[in-house]
Amino acid sequence: MSMLYEFEGKNLFKEHNIPVPKSKLYNGKQSIVDFAKEIGKNEMMVKAQALAGGRGKAGLIKKVTVNTAEEHIKSILGRIHHGKPIEIVMLEEPVKIKKEYYLAAMLDTNSGQYLVLASSRGGVDIEEIAEKYPNEIYRLALPITVEPLPFMFIDLGKKLGFTAKKLTQFAQILTNMLTMAINLDLMLVEINPLIETIDGHIIAADSKVVPDGNALFRQPNLASLKSQRDQYSELEYEAAQAGISYVQLDGEIGIIACGAGLSMATCDLLKYYGSSPANFLDVGGGADQKKVSKALEILSEQPIKGIFINVFGGITRCDEVAEGIIDATKRLNIKIPMVIRLIGTNDKKGIEILEKNGFHAYGEMEPAAKKIVELVKGGN
Questions:
Q1: Where are the domains positioned within the chain?
Q2: What is the pLDDT of residues 313-343, one digit of tens each?
Q3: Which of 190, 236, 320, 323 is catalytic?
Q4: Which of 180, 205, 234, 373 has the fewest CB atoms nearer than 10 Å to its CB?
């Protein structure tokens, strides 16, 4: 489960009518000049984009002038923050702040409700607020089956000190925030700080948005965002897009299995016989020809010495697995050793398909694992 970059979260905010400052991604010196003209100011915020907190304390968020922006940006690009290099910088219009608030909605999966947390003390970590001012954190729960409406949040806004037009703005922002969370299957939406400007507007000055990784299959627009791609290697992202659980390792034998437990057991067995897995790959229960073929395509892009396909078919049909293997081997011209263990639903039909195409299938896991290790080590 990975959070979005701030700029991605704010793009979602704009789509859901949550006010944010004007912004632009840095793309060379001219982008600085153009943005200064757009906002009509000589100063701007430079905000490094990272998938971890603590940017302010690390000096990755700073107010600069048009003349100093380029030098500062070059000093932070490539800097390592929580193990990842800074690759993206956002330019943002500075706003004059009257007061800062904290606002968040997080999904409680046990109760099926969104828990809203709000405080009139924003701009600092919620943990710090909870420790120093526990009585100034207000809570409200909303079931995911209930449509959020502004009137539901009037009392909460009053507790935070909002009145008149600002109270209306707050209630609408929280309504839009929860609507966004429900519609996009989000685990967390946090605005810290939510600011009141000196001219009376309520604006989201920051964004922290965390999608539900288990629901990304029905949120393709979120799954394709750079933040979600950046948590994977290229092959891992390619696999995720195909609905395949894949983790790249540094061993010598590529594996394909159906089920996480069988995949892990396959990795262990290769180690037991003196080799090592080049990946964890679970095509999942019910994998069809297309998915098995795609799994072999992914393995073919790894520098491996052999392939071990280990399938115990329950809801996965062995004939579909066999068809996927034949399709991939014809397309990809795989020349490294490959050993197949195939047992379960429609296994006789699957074995018949394999044998017609010159492949042998084992019925037991141990001899199959031992054989691929022997082949990779130079045996016959």
A1: 1-20+96-231, 22-94, 233-376
A2: 888 999 999 999 999 999 998 889 999 999 9
A3: 190
A4: 234
